[in-house]
Amino acid sequence: MDYSVCLLAAGKGTRMKLPYNKVFHRLKKNKTVLDSSLGIFLQDSECKQVVLMYAKEDEAYMKERYSKIDRVELHEGGLTRQESAGIGLHFVNQDYVMIHDAARPFVTKEQIDALKVALETEDACLLMIPSVDTIKIVKDGYVETTPLRQHVYNAQTPQCFKTTLIKMCYEKSLLEGRQATDDAQLVEWYTDVPIKVVLGDLGNKKITLPQDISI
Ligand code: CTP
Ligand code: MG
């Protein structure tokens, strides 16, 4: 299953409180968060293209470090994650695309393989984990209701789609000026296409807060 990756690194990492974008944080052996999330896809020969989205202020560093890598192309992102993904999708040249947060450096080959297997029969799938906490719907400071825990999952990335499908959904959201919190939500809004759940694990964490670095 050949595919493109739209790798989103065009944020600022505000909540991480580093003096630079969190995707440039060094994990070990001088390997950054981004090196790691990019590396996992570059190791996969079926990943034919990496559309790597960067923030304007990171342009020089990104070009110096990543522009000579085969299969990688760099594009400037937008103000929000959704904007960056929407821009990146214009450049995708494969029939299937995995949209991945560069801030998730611990995604595994096994997880990517499981997503590829799902894409053989599905047009949309994503990594999710069952919620370990009880989730409550809250309104105005009071609990409204508690969804059954076995029905509640946390969405992760990669989120994978038939390229024509997700492009159509992104175009509609742009026209309507509607903001989703992940990519799959756009498919829920605009289509009846089933979105297959592929089990991820807690290790596929998004580096978000300062305490995430200590792990
Ligand atoms: N992202 C992006 N373009 C944006 C905003 C976010 O490509 N305009 C990317 C980030 O680089 C990250 C992923 O989307 O890899 C998930 O977003 P998030 O964890 O929120 O990262 P940031 O927006 O950088 O962090 P913060 O919200 O704390 O500023
Ligand atoms: Mg953000």
Automatic annotation (TrEMBL):
The keyword Transferase applies. Its EC number is 2.7.7.60. Keywords: Isoprene biosynthesis, Nucleotidyltransferase, Transferase. Pfam families: IspD. Signal peptide: none annotated. GO terms for molecular function: 2-C-methyl-D-erythritol 4-phosphate cytidylyltransferase activity. Pathway: Isoprenoid biosynthesis; isopentenyl diphosphate biosynthesis via DXP pathway; isopentenyl diphosphate from 1-deoxy-D-xylulose 5-phosphate: step 2/6. It catalyses: 2-C-methyl-D-erythritol 4-phosphate + CTP + H(+) = 4-CDP-2-C-methyl-D-erythritol + diphosphate. Belongs to the IspD/TarI cytidylyltransferase family. IspD subfamily. This is 2-C-methyl-D-erythritol 4-phosphate cytidylyltransferase. It comes from Absicoccus intestinalis.
